[in-house]
Amino acid sequence: MLSRIREDINSVLRKDPAARGAMEVFFFYPGLHAIWFHRLAHKLWLKGFFFLARGISHISRFFTGVEIHPGAVIGRRVFIDHGMGVVIGETAEIGDDVLIYQGAVLGGVSLEKKKRHPTVGAGAVIGAGAIVLGDIKIGERARIGAGSVVLKNVCPDCSVFGVEAKPGGIGAGRDALSHQNVRDYYEEEIRRIWDEISKIKGGTSK
Q1: CB count, 10 Å around CB of 82?
Q2: pTM, 2 dp
Q3: CATH code of domain 2-205
Q4: Phi and psi dihedrals of 198, rounded to 5?
Q5: Tens-binned pLDDT, residue by residue, of the chain (206 aa)
Q6: How far is residue 39's CA from residue 175's CA, in Å, rounded to a whole number?
Q7: In the chain, domain spans
Q8: In 10 A of CB 62, how many CB atoms?
């Protein structure tokens, strides 16, 4: 357990330039505390102690502002930055090294008792306020832009943004979090439509 805690702390130090040391991360990062609470709750959930698991999840929500259902499967070195308002549903699956920002939701769109929450591949980034809904797959190292609504699968190494999310122009390199560099999908679509209209008008005038 101690080795996993050290691994988590080192992961935060790599991913958050604001982190100044291990002690600061250990005591003052609620997103990390939420992950630690979840590990305990998830073990109890798997053993059939559903009420107790939900109780620990509820306590975690009260202290951290992060709501993770104890049934969710979360990999190693997952970092929830800031954390407040993050919601992760029961059948969500999150791979290793995923980075999730505040206000993100991994939600379900079905009332049936089946897989109804997203599966997030290793190394993916879920931007602040992003809403990812349904039994869809977010590919490895994919980037979900802040405030996006994602309802369909996202391929590995892709970046998407908007409502409903559309492909962006940044990849999974060093500047993958630089949302200001994302090309404007809608502006390009409007420009393409105007080009087509201009061609039609030009053809009609002849």
Answers
A1: 18
A2: 0.81
A3: 2.160.10.10
A4: -60, -40
A5: 788 999 999 999 999 999 999 999 999 999 999 999 999 999 999 999 999 999 999 999 999 999 999 999 999 999 999 989 999 999 999 999 999 999 999 999 888 889 999 999 999 999 999 999 999 999 999 999 999 999 999 999 999 988 877 776 555 554 554 555 555 666 777 888 888 888 888 765 54
A6: 31
A7: 2-205
A8: 9
Which value, to the nearest 10 degrees, does the dihedral of the CA atoms of residues 144, 186, 174, 86 take? Answer: -20
Q: How far apart are CA 109 and CA 168, in angstroms?
A: 25
Q: In 64-121, at which residue ranges do the beta strands (DSSP E only) sit?
A: 67-68, 73-74, 79-81, 87-88, 93-94, 99-101, 105-107, 119-120
Q: Two tokens at 113?
A: 């008792």
Bond into 112 cis (ω within 30): no
DSSP 8-state symbol, 113: S
Distance, in Å, from the CA atom of 57 to the CA atom of 55, rounded to the nearest integer, reads: 5
Give the strand order in the sheet containing 159-161: 79-81, 99-101, 125-126, 143-144, 159-161, 166-167
